[in-house]
Write a structure and sequence with these properties.
383 residues, single chain, 6 strands, three-stranded antiparallel β-sheet, mainly alpha
Length: 383
């Protein structure tokens, strides 16, 4: 199946695109993004990268090629870490967090609740290198607006991660549909580096890094020539530098109470993963609708390019659902019971119907604004 390797739409949707030169301009830009999301109850997290990478925001396991030809690389890694007492945890997700901050490959993407921590990573390379070694290159800070949170200690989160590592859920394997289900995993206070960075994670589920959806992602470019000045400001004004002390764990009551209202506690199952996919699909369509309405005065060539991109995204969901349905009926013909997969045939039909309905409604919505016809018929799933 063809994968979307990088986003082609502009990251700067709501605000102007000029570079920031100092921390005050950076904070102003962050505030503009947050104000643009004022109608949504989203949690914002940040990630800094010291270079403009062709495919940004990728966990390091996908950059190292360690899984090539070895589906159980992660399981073997965690077993070896336990054997050598590099982790004292018994759950794979906890092992992965220890691996992430022990410089081992991981499918977890580091993010931070602190926009200044993210800025530090955008202006400072990894500590094995000198601080100014990447000052000739622009960096990026990414903002992610997430509205579902998964707890690292919850059963559904750990069942999900175990299924990835053990590869014992056939319905989940090698399907782009579930690779789209990026999960925002809240931070844990058991790791000193996470505490220092006010960190959390985004889980990438597949064997290939499916791009984060564009509706949650925004970017701020940090000029290379401004990096040295920003590092100085971070150190002098905020005490943020390579040797920063770890913050104390205080005043968590309000924070945890707020997060608990968004916490996803659904049981990990095939049905709930499909429902999660549909929610992400609808949010992507809502994002593209707003984007296209805002760009409808652009030329026909630009609008055609946008429409082609949107159709490509929708088609990836269509193909994923078709592939899943084909596998599902093969399993049934082979005598597998519905109970084994946790999904009834009628429920699969409802999922497909909701997908078709979302595509039709999207086409009707952009049609009301006089935009070019969306190829909704060929993107429908027919029995």
């Amino acid at each position: 199946m063809t994968k979307i390797k990088s986003n082609i739409l502009p990251q700067e949707k709501h605000v102007k695109t000029e570079n920031v030169q100092d921390i005050s301009q950076y904070i102003e830009r962050v505030n503009e993004y947050i104000k643009a999301q004022r109608h949504k109850e989203s949690t914002v997290v940040y990630r800094g990268e010291p270079d403009i990478y062709p495919n940004p925001c990728r966990p390091n396991i996908f950059r190292k090629g360690v899984m090539n030809g070895n589906q159980f690389f992660e399981k073997s890694l965690f077993d070896a870490m336990r054997q050598n007492r590099l982790t004292g945890e018994i759950r794979y997700l906890d092992n992965a967090i220890d691996a992430q901050h022990g410089e081992f490959p991981s499918r977890l993407l580091d993010v931070s609740y602190n926009c200044l921590t993210a800025l530090y990573f955008a202006v400072t390379p990894y500590y094995h290198n000198s601080e100014d070694s990447m000052d000739d290159r622009d960096g990026m800070v990414f903002l992610f607006f997430v509205d579902e949170i998964f707890s690292p200690s919850a059963k559904n989160t750990n069942d999900n991660y175990d299924a990835i590592i053990n590869r014992d859920q056939k319905w989940m394997q090698n399907n782009i549909l579930f690779e789209k289900n990026h999960k925002f995993i809240d931070h844990t206070k058991l790791n000193n580096r996470i505490i220092a960075q006010q960190g959390a994670f985004i889980l990438f589920q597949g064997d290939e890094p499916e791009s984060l959806p564009e509706y949650i992602s925004y970017g701020i470019r940090i000029p290379g020539k401004a990096k040295a000045g920003m590092r100085k400001e971070l150190r002098q004004l905020f005490g943020i530098h390579t040797g920063s002390i770890y913050p104390e764990i205080i005043n968590l009551v309000d924070e945890l109470s707020s997060k608990s209202r968004k916490l996803n506690t659904e049981e990990f199952s095939c049905k709930n993963e499909l429902k999660y996919t549909l929610r992400q699909f609808q949010k992507e369509l809502d994002y593209y609708f707003d984007y296209m309405v805002g760009r409808r005065s652009d030329g026909e060539e630009d609008m055609n390019r946008i429409l082609m991109h949107v159709e490509h995204v929708v088609d990836s969901y269509r193909r994923g659902l078709l592939e899943f349905a084909e596998n599902y009926y093969q399993w049934k013909r082979a005598g597998q019971t519905e109970a084994l997969w946790g999904l009834k045939e009628t429920e699969l039909g409802e999922i497909i119907s909701k997908y078709n309905q979302s595509v039709r409604e999207f086409a009707e919505s952009i049609g009301r604004y006089g935009m070019k016809e969306f190829s909704s018929d060929k993107l429908q799933i027919t029995k």
